[in-house]
C-alpha cells in the first residue's frame, strides 16, 4: 500500500502565455489574480491598491480602463509602482470603447501587460467585428496577450440568438441552461479564432467564461477545456460577500482545479464595508494551498474547540500565529527559500493535540479544561520543550522565528 498523498488530476494541457514576467499555462504554476476597485484616474490610489494586492500575493492585477482619464493615468500608475519597487503585471479591462482608448492613448497600450476584452461588450451589429479587430490589432502592435473574457451577464446576443435557432431545429431540444452554456463556449472560441485571424498568436490568448452559478460554471469550463488548449482563467463572477462568496467560489473552483482545469484564478468577492481588497487574494491562495497545488505561506492547523477547551486562549493564539506568519511572510520570502512550506499546529487539549503537533514542523498542545497547565511544543515530530505561564504567545513566536532562521537556506547562500 502506497503512503504517497492523494493529489489532483494532471493539469489539462494548455499553451504557455507570458504576461510580463509571469508565465500562464499548464507548464507553469496556477496564478493568482485580483482586481482593483479604485477610480483608475486616481493614479496614486490605484497604484497603492495594486501594491497592496501584489504584496499580499497577487501575481497579476487587473484595472478598469473605461475613459480617457483612466487611460492617461495608466503610465503614471506604472511609474508610481516602480517608485515603490512593485513589479507586477497590470491588465487593462476594456468594455464598449476599448478600441478608441487604446488608439488615442498609445502610452497606455504600451504600458499594460495584457488586455481583457469582453466580446459581448465591444460593439453591436456591424461595429462589433471592426471594433474587436481594432483592439486585437493594438495587441499585435505592442505584442500584448489578450484574455477574451465572456460573461453571461453580457453575452453576445447574436451568438445566443444563433444558438437558440440551432436548438429549435434539434429533434430533441436542449434545456435553456445548456443552450446558454453552449453560447458562452462558442462566443469564447469563435472570438479566439477571430483574434488569430487578425494576427494574434494562439500563444497570446487566454479564455474565460464566467457565470455566477456554481454548477453552470463547472459544466461550462469542462466543455471549454474539452474543446481548446488555450489557458483558462477561472472565476465565479459576482460571487458575493463574506462567507457566501468564499464558499461559492471555493465550491466551484475546487472541483475544476481537482480535475486539472484552470491556469489562473480570481475570487470575485464583494468587500465588507471598509473591508480589505486583499481578502480575495488570501482566499485564492488558501484554495490552492489547502488543495496541495501551491504553497504561499505557512499554514496553521487548529482544532475547532469543544467542551474540553472552554478557555479562548488557544483560539487567540491560533489567530495570533496566523496573523504573524502573514505579516512576516513578505520578509521571509525575500530572505529564505521554501519557508512557505512550513506547517504549524495550535491545538487546544490532550485528545488530538500531541498527535497533530507531531505532524507539523512546529506544534503546540495547550492544556484543556482541567488539564495540567503546561503546553508541550513539538519540533519536527519531537517534543522540544514545555511552555508555562503568561508569556506563551511571545515565546512560541520566538521559537517560530528561530526555526525559520536555522532551518531554511538564506537566499544567495549555498546550501
Question: Low-confidence runs (pLDDT<50, min 5 residues)?
Answer: none
Specify Rg, calculated over alpha carbons. 24 Å
**What does the overall shape look like?**
globular
Based on secondary structure, the structural category is alpha/beta
Q: Determine the fraction of residues in helical runs and give it as a percent range.
A: 40-55%
Strand content: 15-25%
How far apart, in Å, are the first and last alpha carbons?
34 Å
Please count the beta strands (DSSP E, at least 2 residues each).
17
Order of helices and strands: EEEHEHEHHEHEHHEHEEHEEHEHEHEEEH
Largest sheet: 8 strands, parallel
| Spatial strand sequence of the major β-sheet | 8-7-6-5-4-3-11-9
The overall pLDDT, averaged over residues, is: 95
- Total helical segments: 13
Amino acid at each position: 500500500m502506497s503512503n504517497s498523498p492523494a493529489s489532483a488530476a494532471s493539469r489539462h494541457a494548455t499553451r504557455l502565455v507570458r504576461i510580463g514576467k509571469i508565465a500562464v499555462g499548464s507548464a507553469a504554476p496556477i496564478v493568482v489574480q485580483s482586481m482593483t476597485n479604485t477610480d483608475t484616474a486616481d493614479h496614486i490610489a490605484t497604484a497603492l491598491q495594486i501594491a497592496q494586492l501584489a504584496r499580499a500575493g497577487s501575481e497579476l492585477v487587473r484595472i478598469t480602463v473605461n475613459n480617457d482619464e483612466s487611460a492617461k493615468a495608466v503610465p503614471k500608475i506604472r511609474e508610481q509602482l516602480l517608485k515603490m519597487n512593485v513589479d507586477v503585471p497590470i491588465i487593462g479591462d476594456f468594455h464598449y470603447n476599448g478600441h478608441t482608448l487604446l488608439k488615442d492613448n498609445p502610452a497606455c497600450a504600451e504600458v499594460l501587460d495584457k488586455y481583457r476584452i469582453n466580446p459581448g461588450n465591444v460593439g453591436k451589429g456591424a461595429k462589433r467585428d471592426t471594433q474587436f479587430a481594432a483592439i486585437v490589432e493594438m495587441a499585435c502592435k505592442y505584442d500584448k496577450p489578450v484574455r477574451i473574457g465572456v460573461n453571461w451577464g453580457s453575452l453576445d446576443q447574436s451568438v445566443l440568438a444563433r444558438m437558440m435557432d440551432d436548438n429549435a431545429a434539434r429533434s430533441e431540444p436542449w434545456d435553456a441552461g445548456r443552450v446558454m452554456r453552449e453560447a458562452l463556449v462558442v462566443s469564447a472560441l469563435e472570438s479566439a479564432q477571430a483574434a488569430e485571424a487578425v494576427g494574434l498568436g494562439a500563444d497570446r490568448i487566454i479564455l474565460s467564461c464566467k457565470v455566477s452559478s456554481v454548477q453552470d460554471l463547472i459544466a461550462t469550463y469542462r466543455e471549454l477545456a474539452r474543446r481548446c488548449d488555450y489557458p483558462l482563467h477561472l472565476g465565479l463572477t459576482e460571487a458575493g460577500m463574506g462567507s457566501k462568496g468564499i464558499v461559492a467560489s471555493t465550491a466551484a473552483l475546487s472541483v475544476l482545479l481537482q480535475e486539472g482545469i484552470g491556469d489562473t484564478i480570481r475570487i470575485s468577492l464583494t468587500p465588507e464595508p471598509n473591508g480589505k481588497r486583499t481578502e480575495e487574494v488570501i482566499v485564492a491562495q488558501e484554495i490552492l494551498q489547502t488543495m496541495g497545488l501551491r504553497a504561499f505561506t505557512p499554514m496553521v492547523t487548529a482544532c475547532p474547540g469543544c467542551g474540553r477547551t472552554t478557555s479562548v486562549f488557544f483560539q487567540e493564539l491560533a489567530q495570533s500565529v496566523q496573523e504573524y506568519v502573514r505579516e512576516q511572510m513578505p520578509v521571509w520570502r525575500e530572505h529564505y527559500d521554501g519557508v512557505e512550506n512550513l506547517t504549524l499546529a495550535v491545538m487546544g487539549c490532550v485528545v488530538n493535540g500531541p498527535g497533530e503537533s507531531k505532524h507539523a514542523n512546529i506544534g503546540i498542545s495547550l492544556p484543556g479544561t482541567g488539564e495540567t497547565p503546561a503546553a508541550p511544543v513539538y519540533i519536527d515530530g519531537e517534543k522540544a520543550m514545555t511552555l508555562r505561564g503568561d508569556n506563551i504567545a511571545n515565546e512560541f513566536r520566538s521559537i517560530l522565528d528561530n526555526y525559520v532562521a536555522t532551518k531554511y537556506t538564506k537566499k544567495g547562500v549555498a546550501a
